[in-house]
Each structure stands twice: as C-alpha cells, then as structure tokens.
C-alpha cells in the first residue's frame, strides 16, 4: 500500500467566531480521518481575529494569531484562506486579495457571493484558483455538492428550500403555540436563534442570498441577487397559520427557483405547502431543500442549517476538496457554478408579476348578503378560478353580535399580475374592511 507523504496543506482562518472555532475544533478532533480522505494533512497555521486574546485561547500554542487579516492573505506560507468574517465590505477586499495572491478561498459568506459572486468567480477563474462555498447555503447540508456534482446528469426543474432556521423556528412556534409573530420573535431571540437585529432573517434577505446561489448552480446563470423577489414573514398573523392548518396546509418561508418557458423564477416568500409534503413537516431551526430533476425525480436534503460544528463540517469538506485538487489542472476541476464559464446561460430572471402560482386570500368583510358573490365575480372576470372557500361565522371571529367576518379563498394557478389587478378591485369594495392578506400556495408536486 502506497504511503501518504505529501506535505500538509496550510490554512489561514479569517474570523475566529462560532464557525471559526468549530472549524478548528472539528479539524483537530478528526484530523487523522481527514488526512486519510484528503491524501495529505490539513493544518490551520495562522488565524486572524480582532480579539487576539480570545482567538489565542481557542487555538492554543502552535498557531500564529494576528489582528490584521491582511497578514494572513499576504503570507507566502498559506495555501488556502478561509473567510468567516461575513458581510460585503472588508470580506470582499480580502477574498479578492487572496485570489490575486494565488490562494484558494473557502467561504461561508452567502451575502458576499450572492451580490459579488460573478466578479469573484471570474477573478478566481483567471488566477486558476478555487472558491469553495458549501457552508454558505444550508449549513451542514451538502446541497452545493449535490447540485454541482451529484445531480450533474439532470436538467434541474425546480428547487424549493427552507433555508433560514430563524424564520422556520418562528413559524413553528406560531403554529405549535398559537403565538403572534412579535412574541415568537422574542422567544427566538431569547434562545439565540435570532440576532438582536433579525431583519436579514425575518425580511427574507438571508434566504434570498442562498436561493440565488442555488439558482445559479442549478441553471447555469450568473449570480444576480438584485433580480430576486424577496418577501419576509413580518406580516404573517397567527390566524393565517391556523386557517392554513384547517385547509390542510402549513406556512413556510420558502426560497424557490424554477425553470419555466419564459426564463427562471427566483423568489423568497411565505408559502402554503400541503401538510402531507415532507418539507411541510420540517420544524424548529432545521433546514430542508427539495430538488426536482428530470432523471432523478424529487430529492430531499435535510439537516442543521447553522451552528458551529454543522457549518464547520461544510467548511472542512471544502478544504478536503481543495487539498485533493490542489495540484490538478484548473481546467479539470468542477466549475464554480457547475457549468463551464463559457457555457453560462443568458436566461432571464422573471419579474414577480410574470410568475404563475396559486393563492390563499384572507378578507375581513362585512357580514352581509352578497359579499362573497361580489368577490368571486371579480375573480371570475379576470379568469381566476377558485379551489376552495372557507367562510367563518361572524360570532366565531368577533364574538356574539359581530358584524364582520373572515372570508378565506384558495385559488387555482394564475398570473401574479392578474391577481394584483383582482386584489386592487376587491380591496376597493366598501364591504372589504381591512387590507387583504395574500399568501402564495406551492403544491411542490
């Protein structure tokens, strides 16, 4: 048996927070198995963090710790730079400088790649280095690897994912305990699932970054987060979750990308999903991604979407890939976005108004004769057909003697632009007493 005698590959780590510490610890704990898989050792020899004392306590002796990340990037002794700082600012500069210095890059920074990925991947291609980003989407779930390599024989038709654990935890709390959004958010913050400023999560931006990356890999299109439709969960009410349940659905914040005749759909928004679908039963802070391919059919990827060691698992998988391919001809490596750079598609990303889907509508209406007929008449005039209607008794909604009630309508598929037109007409009716709630419905069949 041939012995493994390649010198270890040397890694510089930028950012020694939760994921950085997890990466160091897992690499230390499993170093022998990792060496056997990679064909050579992988050693973190240099770490940069503004809190030098904390970083030094985490890594112990034998690792150089500096406050200036540029020292790591510039060091001739470093082969791979792992960027775990986050954000668009200094992280972008450091990644581009590492590439320019001929170093491979591993990053968990979905925001950076979703916004600046085209520039970063082009720079890496020119320099013949790899930018690996498994940890940027769905934490420890190897979804990037599956899309780039495992499903490479398939024409991907659509992807739908619960790819933000914070929002999924909040929606699970709202459903299980009947909590309003604000109360569930406070509980998520108390337990550490949500940041003090949770806006990136609850407004859907984080999920938007992740689905943008998956879309680019699935369909061979440039990374273009600016064209994604992004809607969060801040306007969801407890009664919508309850009504959805009565109709056989659960509400999830989904990142969806789909190939259709006119182009590519790229969207994030709350969705009603049939309760019998596996993804509808993903609870708490867990993540799940469903991928539909023409040859393989439906595949499901489930696991922890965040956390120290789950994310570290993905970072180290990228390090192993680079260690294996470090000396390979760049032309023989898996392309960053799965498709060869000169074979990318110019398929356009659709506007939300061009998307066809079905809908859940909740209307607060006056409890009087003829209201339902007027609403259904407007929908019919615009060619929107109804799948189901749930009309609550007024006293169930507002108590005895109430003069208003909830009207719930599920529609069949229609163009979003047409639904916008219908809602404008319905909202103008004097018997519609509050802003209409509209939630899209995804059968995921």
Structure explained in plain terms:
This protein has 16 helices and 17 strands. With 445 residues, the chain is an alpha/beta fold. It folds into 3 domains: 6-141 and 309-343, Rossmann fold; 143-305, Dihydrodipicolinate Reductase, domain 2 (2-Layer Sandwich); 356-441, Alpha-Beta Plaits (2-Layer Sandwich), CATH 3.30.70.260.
The overall average pLDDT, rounded, is 94
CATH-assigned fold name of the largest domain: Rossmann fold
Domain unit count: 3
Class of the largest domain, according to the CATH hierarchy?
Alpha Beta
Q: Let me know the CATH homologous superfamily of the largest domain.
A: NAD(P)-binding Rossmann-like Domain
- Rounded to an integer in angstroms, the radius of gyration calculated over CA atoms is 25 Å
Tertiary shape: elongated
Q: Percent range for helical residues?
A: 25-40%
Characterize the largest beta sheet: strand count, sense, and whether it forms a barrel: 11 strands, mixed
The class by helix and strand makeup works out as alpha/beta
């Amino acid at each position: 048996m041939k012995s493994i005698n390649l010198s270890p590959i040397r890694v510089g780590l930028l950012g020694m927070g939760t994921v950085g510490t997890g990466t160091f610890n897992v690499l230390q704990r499993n170093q022998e198995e990792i060496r056997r898989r990679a064909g050579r050792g992988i050693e973190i020899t240099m770490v940069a963090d503004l809190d030098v004392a904390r970083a030094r306590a985490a890594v112990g002796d034998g690792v150089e710790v500096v406050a200036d990340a540029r020292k790591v990037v510039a060091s001739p002794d470093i082969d791979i730079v792992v960027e775990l700082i986050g954000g668009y600012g200094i992280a972008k500069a450091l990644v581009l400088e590492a590439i320019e210095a001929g170093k491979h890059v591993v990053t968990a920074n979905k925001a950076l790649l979703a916004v600046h990925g085209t520039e970063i991947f082009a720079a890496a291609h020119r320099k013949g280095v790899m930018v690996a980003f498994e940890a940027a989407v769905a934490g420890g779930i190897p979804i990037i690897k599956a899309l780039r390599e495992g499903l490479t024989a398939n024409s991907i038709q659509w992807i739908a994912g619960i790819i933000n654990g914070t929002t999924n935890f909040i929606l699970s709390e709202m459903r299980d305990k009947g909590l309003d959004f604000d109360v569930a958010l406070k509980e998520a913050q108390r337990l550490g699932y949500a940041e003090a400023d949770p806006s990136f999560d609850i407004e859907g931006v984080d999920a938007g970054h992740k689905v943008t990356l998956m879309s680019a890999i699935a369909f061979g299109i440039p990374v273009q987060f600016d064209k994604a439709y992004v809607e969060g969960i801040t306007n969801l009410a407890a009664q919508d979750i309850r009504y959805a349940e009565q109709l056989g659905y659960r509400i999830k914040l989904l990142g969806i990308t789909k190939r259709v005749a006119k182009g590519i759909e790229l969207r994030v928004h709350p969705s009603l999903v049939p309760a019998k679908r596996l993804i509808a039963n993903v609870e708490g802070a867990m993540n799940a991604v469903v991928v539909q391919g023409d040859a393989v059919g439906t595949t499901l990827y489930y696991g922890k979407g965040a956390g120290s060691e789950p994310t570290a698992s993905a970072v180290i998988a990228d390090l192993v890939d680079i260690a294996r391919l470090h000396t390979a001809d760049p032309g023989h490596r898996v392309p960053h976005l799965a498709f060869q750079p000169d074979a990318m598609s110019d398929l356009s990303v659709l506007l939300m108004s061009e998307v066809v889907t079905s809908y859940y509508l909740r209307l607060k209406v006056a409890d009087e004769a003829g209201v339902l007929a007027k609403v259904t008449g407007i929908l019919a005039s615009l060619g929107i057909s109804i799948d189901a209607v749930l009309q609550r008794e007024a006293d169930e909604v507002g108590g005895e003697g109430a003069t208003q009630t909830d009207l719930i309508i599920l529609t069949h598929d229609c163009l979003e632009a047409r639904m916008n037109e219908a809602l404008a007409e319905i909202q103008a009716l004097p018997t519609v007493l509050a802003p209409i709630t509209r939630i899209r419905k995804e059968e995921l069949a």
